[in-house]
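Sequence only, no structure available. Ideas?
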Amino acid sequence: MNNNRVPWHFLALLILAGESVFILPFVLSRVFRPTVLKAFELDNLELGLCFSVYGIVAFLSYPFGGPLADKYPPRKLIAIALWMTALGGLVYATFPSYTMLKVLYGYWGFTTIFLFWAPMIKATRVWGGSKSQGKAFGFLDGGRGLVGALFGALGVFIFSLVITSDIATISVAESREAFKQVILASAAIVTLVGVLVWFFMKLDRQIEKEITLKKITWSQVKEVLALPSVRLLMIIIMCAYVGYKITDVFSLYAQDVMLYDQVQSAQVGTFLLFIRPVVGVIIGVVADRTKTTFWLMISFVVSIIGALLFALGIVNVSSTLLFFMSTLIVAAGVYAARSLYFAVMERGQIPLALTGTAVGLMSLIGYTPDIFAGPGMGFLLDNSPGVQGHQHVFWMLAIFAFIGGIAAWRYFKLYGKKE
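Reply:
I predicted one. Tokens follow.
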């Protein structure tokens, strides 16, 4: 399929929706992690368990949501998912009990995955056509990173605007009031994005007919599962996603190890978000002009190097420049892998009409870190407070990046010559 048949504004809305839907469950807690722990009276393990509930519901949603994306136009599923996710933000803004917070994360697991995830990936693949998959997914992830960064910057601005007292002596009540305004503003924007998607993210009727199936059969599911590319991508996505989840701790590292305050820590989280669009766009363009599968393999190598800088204790409170340089290296590797692991689907001979089903099956294994990464990091951080706990987390990243690198190397050997 030629991507010239699908307009640029389609991809722009896809990018906007692609990050907006995850702002409430993930981006705010990434940028404001110390504030979230304080306002909701949680420790790292408890917050990790909230992510696990999300992950369990998501795990159950992937195989069912995938075929749904092959039966209905992406626009409708994506818009409904955005509106339902924004409704959860109204509950989030009441600072519910720990039990209710876990229920809320389970609800978000349904709205963001069952209705949203596979349609987003399929729509991106449609836009990319046969020759621009690297660009399509690089722009998607880079653009999502930019949207997340802008949300983060807006959130930090609103938070600092509401705070009137000295940030070093801020009370829990003041933190909650400021963070509540951040949540409500985010929910309002997510709702608006849903409206834009519903009315303007339309495909030509002929294209919709080409990419949708009236019925998904069990033989088609088995056909997808039999592909070596699908099985390898399960491992590649899982390992890359562990790296992405671990980027959540950078704002906490800034507070615990580098001794930054709440606003400065949030600014570190926002800085990380601004790296993502740059990496996504650059790697997407470069990959299309060379070999997508090769750069996927290299991204894991870069992740290992960055992880070891932290895991070996080279980064400490006296090395601010090294902290930001090492953060940049980890982010470059992690975000590059994230930009490319769906971009290699075309090279892996996965049928376009069955993209939703394939994404559902790959994600079933690939996104299990939503279940175990949060509690795993929380356990490591809470049982070894301070720099040692963070070193353990980065050893976790190094190990998964090594496994992912081996799987990416195998994918390159199987499909790289065809590029």
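Residues 3-418 form a domain with the Growth Hormone; Chain: A; fold (CATH 1.20.1250.20).
Hope that gets you unstuck.
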